């Protein structure tokens, strides 16, 4: 069997849902179970409605109607009965009315409200599949047996889930396509829970693991994880295979394609995860596996960048031969809620990077650090990550990387390589980042570009694709279309 998970934009319109129907039809011989997110933006709108009901910023009808209209519009364009979601909207209305009346919104009631996003999308999808001749049935997360702890909003799946899901769904496979709500579960006491934003990928991984899937497909609106951000490096391409660790390193800087942590339950037991594009289904996408098959031919698999950071240098002779100095510096940073990304130290100095949205906190921490150290802050710095499992075994990669930046005349201000050895990170001025990435891409990645398979569709337009790593929240001017119901 396989799991096919469709994100918010993949179920975001009647047209998209028809495409999904086509994709599921093609996948039928592989006995799929389908997992769906809420219609795109609906989760955010539900969260917002609950909060506005609590503040009495709008009446319940004013909150309910636009959401109902979104779903009814899709239903009518699919020629399905509009009343299909009526019972759900009745229940949602009751919940919002309760919140409005009591002016009280608990994490538990918020989860209850938010759950209707996926409940409705699964219903619509199952009805559409059935109408186009594919027998299907909708299931909620709690109906299939997803049991969680009671951390509402960020719940963790408990082990008994795996047996329950298997018991409930095994017999359905190959007969009726189960269409399961992503993102949702229930506590042992029977309360609805949600698995954290973007949690449908996690649901897909859990269901795939329970049913021993051959593959988990994450259908989204980009062609997979790319070798670099295509808005920076025009000849960036979709990576065919990545290990889980590489995907995690590339995702580190805020990728929205896939948060690797969410598919860990599946990759852990060796189930490959494929990221594929609902709007370019012939593209093979990116396959994420636990271990690379055979020898690693590629030293470097991808490049990631996060622009707009502060580089903070803390220098003090007190650090020489003193224990507890690092603890003191990081204690001060923690006290001011400064979140550190990259770090390098020498005997007398510490260099670190901090996202620029922490600038105020950094300034406050600096006041304190200056009692015992010299502190300089530099704005406009880019973190560049060179990622590849092959770096573990091949010596001289750092030399090559910095040979490239050296030839470009680019000054490198911090270098760090973690214990995993599959990630070489360094910092340059924002103004030099694009040139560094292009030169590194030319040097390491250009020649590795996979040749199109015979008979494969021409590469889809690059618009909307993104690398696993190239998008920090800090870069609003380069907004992407990512598959997300947010
Ligand atoms: N609908 C949920 C969210 O927007 C879960 C998901 O899309 O995976 O976070
Ligand atoms: Mg999503």
Describe what this molecule looks like in 3D.
By secondary structure, the chain is of the alpha/beta class. It folds into 2 domains: 2-213, Carbamate kinase (3-Layer(aba) Sandwich), CATH 3.40.1160.10; 302-448, 2-Layer Sandwich (VC0802-like), CATH 3.30.2130.10. 37% of the residues lie in helices and 21% in strands. It contains 14 helices and 19 strands. It has helices at 14-27, 42-55, 60-77, 86-102, 107-131, 141-144, 160-169, 200-210, 244-251, 260-268, 325-335, 359-369, 397-407, 430-445; strands at residues 2-6, 32-36, 136-139, 147-148, 177-181, 184-187, 192-194, 215-220, 225-226, 241-243, 273-277, 286-289, 302-315, 340-345, 349-355, 374-387, 414-417, 423-429, 466-467. An 8-stranded mixed sheet has the order 3-5-2-1-8-11-12-10, with helices on both faces. The chain has a 6-stranded antiparallel sheet with strand order 14-15-13-16-18-17. The longest helix is centred in the N-terminal third of the chain and has 25 residues, at 107-131. Residues 456-486 have low confidence and may be disordered. The structure holds aspartic acid (ASP) and magnesium ion. The site of magnesium ion has 7 residues, from loops.
């Amino acid at each position: 069997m396989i799991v096919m998970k469709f994100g918010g934009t993949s179920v975001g319109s009647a047209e998209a849902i028809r495409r999904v129907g086509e994709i599921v039809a093609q996948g039928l011989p592989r006995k799929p179970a389908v997992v769906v997110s809420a219609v795109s933006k609906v989760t955010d709108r539900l969260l917002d409605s609950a909060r506005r009901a609590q503040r009495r910023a709008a009446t319940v009808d004013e909150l309910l109607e636009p959401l109902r209209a979104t779903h009814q519009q899709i239903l009518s364009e699919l020629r399905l009965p509009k009343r299909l979601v009526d019972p759900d909207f009745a229940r949602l209305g009751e919940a919002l009315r309760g919140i409005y009346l009591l002016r009280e919104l608990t994490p538990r009631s918020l989860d209850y409200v938010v759950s209707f996003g996926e409940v409705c999308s699964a219903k619509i999808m199952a009805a559409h599949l059935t109408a186009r001749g594919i027998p299907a049935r909708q299931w909620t997360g709690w109906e299939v047996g997803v049991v969680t702890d009671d951390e509402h909003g960020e719940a963790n799946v408990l082990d008994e889930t795996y047996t329950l899901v298997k018991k409930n769904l095994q017999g359905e496979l190959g007969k009726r396509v189960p269409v399961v709500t992503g993102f949702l579960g229930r506590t042992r006491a029977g309360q609805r829970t949600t698995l954290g934003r973007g949690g449908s990928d996690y649901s897909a991984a859990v269901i795939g693991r329970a049913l021993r899937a051959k593959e988990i497909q994450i259908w989204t609106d980009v062609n997979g994880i790319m070798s670099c951000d295509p808005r920076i490096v025009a000849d960036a391409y979709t990576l065919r295979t990545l290990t889980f660790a590489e995907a995690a390193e590339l995702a580190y800087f805020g990728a929205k394609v896939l948060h690797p942590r969410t598919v860990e339950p599946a990759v852990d037991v060796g189930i490959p995860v494929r990221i594929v594009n609902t709007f370019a289904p012939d593209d093979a996408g990116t396959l994420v596996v636990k271990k690379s098959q055979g020898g690693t031919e590629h030293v470097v698999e991808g490049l990631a960048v996060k622009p707009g950071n502060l580089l903070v240098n803390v220098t003090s002779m007190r650090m020489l031969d003193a224990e507890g100095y690092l603890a003191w510096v990081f204690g001060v940073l923690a006290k001011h809620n400064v979140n550190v990304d990259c770090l390098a130290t020498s005997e007398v100095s510490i260099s670190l990077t901090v996202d620029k949205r922490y600038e105020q906190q950094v300034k406050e921490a600096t006041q304190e650090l200056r009692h015992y150290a010299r502190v300089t802050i530099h704005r406009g710095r880019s973190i560049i990550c060179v990622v590849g499992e092959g770096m573990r075994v091949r010596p001289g990669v750092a030399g090559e990387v910095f040979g490239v930046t050296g030839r470009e005349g680019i000054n490198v201000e911090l270098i760090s390589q973690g214990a995993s050895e599959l990630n070489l990170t360094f910092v340059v001025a924002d103004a030099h980042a694009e040139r560094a990435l292009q030169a590194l891409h030319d040097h390491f990645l250009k020649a590795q570009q996979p040749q199109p398979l015979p008979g494969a569709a021409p590469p889809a337009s690059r618009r909307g694709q993104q690398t696993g790593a190239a998008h920090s929240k800090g870069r609003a001017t380069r907004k992407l279309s990512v598959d997300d119901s947010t």
